[in-house]
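Handout, section 4.2: multi-component inputs.
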Amino acid sequence: MQDLDHANITAAVNATWGDGTDPRLREILEALVRHLHELAREVNLTHAEWQQAIEFLYQVGRKTTRRRNEFILLSDILGVSSLVDMLASRGPDGATERSVLGPFYLPNAPMLPVGGGDMRRDNPGEPVLVRGRVYDASGRGIGGALMEVWQNAANGLYSNQDPDQADDNLRCRLNTATDGAYAFTTIRPVPYSVPTDGPVGGVLRATGRHPWRTAHIHFRVTAPGYDELVTELFPADDPYIDGDAVFGVRASLAVPFRRSDSAELAAAHGLPTPFGVVDYDFGLCPAG
Amino acid sequence: MQDLDHANITAAVNATWGDGTDPRLREILEALVRHLHELAREVNLTHAEWQQAIEFLYQVGRKTTRRRNEFILLSDILGVSSLVDMLASRGPDGATERSVLGPFYLPNAPMLPVGGGDMRRDNPGEPVLVRGRVYDASGRGIGGALMEVWQNAANGLYSNQDPDQADDNLRCRLNTATDGAYAFTTIRPVPYSVPTDGPVGGVLRATGRHPWRTAHIHFRVTAPGYDELVTELFPADDPYIDGDAVFGVRASLAVPFRRSDSAELAAAHGLPTPFGVVDYDFGLCPAG
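Output:
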């Protein structure tokens, strides 16, 4: 009979996946077992620590609902969610980097006119004009791309977290113009805390980590023949630009919110002066 | 500002654990982040696969209660629970290897007379005499050690899974005699399936793995001045001796269930002939 021990158990577990197993599932399970075992061996995990880990996962499961997924939050604060986005971002030169979708996306936001319009409405906060182009690998503008935009209000909350905001507040959709141009008005987003009332909040407290996300505007850009792009833009001067609790910031997505006093631009976009200007072009990858 | 990418994010996450973090917690978190990230990079985990993993954990959480912990079962079938036992088993020569406590332990089982007695009662199944000594590192018997024993019945169920069994059926406690000797009668345990109605059962089916645990008798042995020993004995001729679904079997814990026709021994222990005999000595480690 086989004589299992702490060294050979890894190969023994990975020998049990049957021949009919989907090859990709098998590849992932084999790597999972190898890394879990190596982790336990490396730190010489005790039975009491294993029990604490099981209890922690039990509490994460208890806190999780379809609306509030503590497993995703755990993945976020360990940098796993962002790493997965980064791995998917290794596209051709010129393609915009991806970042997290987050839990606050809603479909069917109000359509603005082709090219852009007013998402700011009467929201308090620093007025901002965001503008640029959506382009392809060759630098050509992509007309008719669908851009979806969502962000939080001055109180730090998204509309679907806040009964005092209209459901569609600070959310919009727009189609790019034939040359790929877009422009919309909004307010500057503000940093906000990830939820800290669950077991993941306990980890942050036990390790002296803050729960703040760098302020950001979410984008989802789709166009026929191109891969979907989900990303975020961050104010380069945000106090948490180097300390996003979920590691969503990339240097290429940190953008200046330039101050403008242009009366002409203000009038064209219905903004008071001064206002912020963000210029950003989004590069899409060909599908597949 | 820092420019996070798929290679440097691991160091960035591990730089966030604060100076006041418990050193052992920090050691474990750093290794956890390193191995989770390495796993994602190695298999080039896609966003869709990450979502499937999150959904799987969500389902594991939903299936888990205080009585039925699907996280423990997941740890079991990935060999992690046994590996942790193995790491704790690296004691001095002569110390008995540890194995899983399992979910069916109950305290306060009936006390048999010093040295042993009848745990078999009127249970159907192959009658067995289990006997031996509890000894220390120098080979001296340990008198007055407390041995707790539990196992399943011929129908594969433990008393706390089966309304048709008395709560204390096939469970006992006994104190060893002054020379460390013990002996009790029972029936041969039978293989049984781990629960397969949850997401972990789905993994077993998707990978062509069977859910059977090798038959076993559970032991917990405690004595003042010695480390607690939790282990199991397995019939060496069990059909699943090389295929325990939770990797609990060690060669040193697989024991012959020898057939005996001894009328003398049968009479001394109130058994019919023929019966099985298991001879096993348990070695304890000095405390600490």
